[in-house]
Write a structure and sequence with these properties.
- The chain contains 25 helices and ten strands.
- The protein is of the alpha/beta class.
- The strands form two sheets. It has a six-stranded parallel β-sheet with strand order 7-6-5-8-9-10, sandwiched between helices.
- Strand 5, helix 7 and strand 6 form a beta-alpha-beta unit.
Length: about 600
Amino acid sequence: MTAFVSNWLTKAAEYAADNVIGDAGPAQMSDQTLYACFELDIAPPAYNFLNFLVLADIAREELGLARVHVVFVPGTGDGFRHEDIEYPVVNKEWRLRQICLAGLCLLPACRSHTLCASREEAADLLAARARHVFPFGYRVDKPRADHDYGRIVQAAAAGHRVDRLEAPEQARIYVREWLRGVAGDRPVVTITLRESSYDVHRSSNNGNWIALAREMRQRGYCPVVVRDTETVFAADSDAFAGIAMFPHAAVNLELRAALNAEAFLNTGINQGPWTLWHFLREIPYLCVYVIDRMFEGWHDYHIDRSGFTLGENMPFARGCQVTYWGDDRLPDLRREFWALVDRIEAGEHQRGPAGTVPDRCDGPLELAERYRENEHYDHALAIYRKLMDENPDDLQVQFRAAIVSFEAGEFAAAVDYLTQPLAVLGPEPTVVDVMARAKFRLGRLDETLALLDQALDLHPDDSGLLERRGDVLLEKCNISEARECFRRALERQPESPPLAKKLAEASFLSGRVDDAIGLYARLIRDHRVSVVVIEDLARALKRVGREKLAADCYEIGIAVRSGRKPAPELLKHVIAECLQGKDDSAAA
């Protein structure tokens, strides 16, 4: 056990009676869920919540649990802590929704949450459902909180990775699409500005950052500015002219995380959103930690108590994740930024595999296929018709439209859609198969047979074409020739129950009843007891005078129809009698 979690558990032991809450028995508790309580009477509804999420996930991992359920416990000051006087309640509620609730989607192990209406509701929930609670020893009447950087530094020192958050896939799809149009092939550098009405002396020096952005553009990079949420809806100043702005990130945490994840480099001063840079996986950043214009006591609280070391990178930094301690003066920005760019381009920052995030949302073909799979044929066909209007020679779209039309019962339309693919590709088996099935359903048997014969001249061993030809011949009452087609098809696809059943039926109709009996019996033995097959076997047995065995088959069929398993000994007896004296191959 690591020192980090041992420390937690030592603390928890002091509250041993509190670690399992209430009188709920084991059967009522969730053994694989960590209930992580975000105590709003102590913690602010801000980016510190991401610290809390990461610490909760480390605790989950240490305890060997599968998932995290976050419980938001309201504070006693209008739902929040009393000392947060900088913002009105409506602003705190916004932050709770837009940062804390939105942040849940960044932690893969977080599967659910509860936003409690009262502290009593939170206590009842924990008593009824929670066996594992974080922070260790937490109780609603004895609140505790784990949301500061001091605990993050301890976790990193104990060997835990803290970059546990992930930008959601759909957000990355949207951001990639936007960046493709804005940046093209240029490396993207984000600039996150602080322009807050709270602690105004530690906001960004916008003029210096804009000057650096223009220098980036001149040297082939694409700067993307994200303004503070407080100013994002203000009219853009002329100072930003010509610089790409991404205001969406200021009001949508998923898009902010996705932009950070997709960027070549992320830059800005220390502020709430920098938390994402620490906890998103493997993203490079340059953070200017402003210390030259901070109020008295800042150093003690925000640096020493957090476990940071003045002049050094964050204790959990990896690769090209740089913290510069000073101020955002332009000469310093230039020096630190271009030095870090040189390191990244030299390969010092190694990202892991890119994963499976696609470049864009599903295209029209993928969407049409989803419609088809869900039997929304009209929607799928509407997409295919639009694509065919745009490109009348796209054979793939025509073929897909034919399949959807066939499945929708529009057989004539399927034939029409396949006309051009068949003319261009010739009697290609896949195209012929769909065309043959459509024409067969329309009763155009002679045309179907001629088409299949033409294809079989080129592909004599194609089991699908042989099966289709057998279907047509059976419909035209040419039983013997149909049987031969099914036999040849089954030789090439011996594990196909539908083919074996068709061969058995053709054998029965052509007078080769013993062959049919053998085929039906093997189907029942090797696959499953189908009511249809067992009754077909009984019919064949009656034809040859084996009335008793036929009656046994009907008894088995009655059991299956009623949802019961047939008597095993009776089933074995029927199969053995039917196969007695026959070899174990398909009837010749």
